[in-house]
Amino acid sequence: MSDPLQHFGSVLRERRLEKGFSLRKFAELVDISPTYLSLVETGKAEYAPAAERVRKMAEVLGADPDHWIALAGRMPEDVKNIILKDPEQMPALLRAAKNLTPEQLKKLIADAERKGKGAED
Amino acid sequence: MASGSHQKHRVKFLHEKQIEREAKLLLDEWAEKGHEITVPIPLDELVEIHLQLPFEIVDLRSQFGGHDVMGAIWFDDGTIRIDASLDPHEYPHLRGRYNFTVAHEVGHWRLHRSQLLDDPNERTLFESGSKPAFVCRDGDSVPEEWQANAFAGCLLMPRELVFDEWHAWRGADAPVPDADLDVRPLARNQKRDVELAREALCKPLAERFEVSAHAMRIRLENLGLFVKEIEPGLF
User: Fold this and answer.
1) ipTM at complex level
2) Do B89 and A41 touch (CB under 8 A)?
C-alpha cells in the first residue's frame, strides 16, 4: 500500500484529468497555487490540504467530500466539532461501531437520525 | 533557453516553415476534437488534456543547479516540469514567460522526441526515466533550443490569429515601419532602441496572446508586421 498522501494525490490527479481540468485551471478554481497542487498530486506535500480545501476540490470534481477528506487523512470540520463537544461518548460510540457491517451501520445511522430528530422536536 | 549538458548539435536542421507547420498541426488536432482555437491559446489544456503529458510545477533549480533553469522534459513518459519561479498564480506578471516555457517544452516533444529516440546513444540516456532529455535554461541558442523557441512562438501566436488580431488592433493590415515608432530620430539605427520601442508598442497585443512583449515583437518581426521601412506601393 502506497503512502496515503501519495494515494490521495494520484486519485486527485486522475479525477482532475478525467474531468478535463488542467493543473493551472483547477488550482485557480480551488484557490491554491499550481506549485502546491503539483506537490499534493505527486504526494510530496509536507501536509495534506485542509479539510475544507479538500471538500472544495471534491465538489468541483463531483466526488464525495467526506470520502476524499478521509483519503487525505483529514477530518471534516463538523465531525471534529461533534467529537470535541462530547469527547468521551463520541469516541466510545465510534469504537463500539467500528466492527459493524455496512448494513448494521446503515440501520444504526437511521435509528440515530430518528432519535436525533425526536430530541429536536 | 539552452540544453544544460550537451554542447554538440543533437538535432537535425529544421526550417522555420517546418516548425510552423508542426505547431499548426498540433492546433489542428485540438480543433478536430471540437475545440475552438481562440486567443489566448489554451496551452495547459493542450499539454495535459490533448497530449496527455504529465505536468508539474516544481523547484527545478535546486534539482539541476543554477538560477536560470526554466523547464525540463523527460522523454520516457513525456513529463514536463516547469520551475516554480514561473508559477503563474504566485507571479502573474511572469505569465508570458510561463506560457513560453511550457510551449518550448512541447516543442521538444513534438520536434525532437522521435529524432532522439532513433539515436541509440541518446535513447539509453533517458530510457530509464531518471534523466531529462532537455533541461532548458534562459538565454542560449543552440539549434535544439532555437527550434523549440521557434515552435513556442508559432504555437502561442499562430500566423492567422496574429494577422486577425493585428487588424482588429491597428484597424489595417499595414505593418509598422521604424519611422512610426517612438524612437529618437538619432537613435533609429540603434537596434536595441528600435526593439524596445517595438516592444512598447506591441504590449497590448502581447497581453491578448498572454506572451511577453519580447516574444510578441520577435513574432511580429518574423511575420513582417514590424519593418524597417515600408516598400513603396505595398500599402
Assistant:
1) 0.85
2) no
In total, the C-beta contacts within 8 angstroms joining chain A to chain B are 44
B56, B63, B91, B98: best to mutate for the A interface, most A CBs within 10 A: B56
**Radius of gyration of chain A from its Cα atoms, rounded to whole angstroms:** 17
**What single-letter amino acid sits at A58?**
A
Shortest Cα distance, chain A CAs vs residue B27, angstroms: 17
Chain B residues lying within 8 Å of A28, measured CB to CB: 89
Q: Are strands B134-137 and B80-83 parallel, antiparallel or unpaired?
A: unpaired
CB contact under 8 A, B49 and A22: yes
| Smallest CA–CA distance from A28 into chain B, residue | B89
Residue B186 banded pLDDT, cuts 50, 70, 90: low
Q: What is the pLDDT of residues A25-69, one digit of tens each?
A: 999 999 999 999 999 999 999 999 999 999 999 999 999 999 999
Touching B: A residues 30-59, CB under 8 Å = 32-35, 38-39, 41-42
pTM over 0.80: yes
Chain centroid offset of residue B216 CA: 10
- The answer to whether A18 contacts chain B (CB < 8 Å) is no
Length of chain A: 121
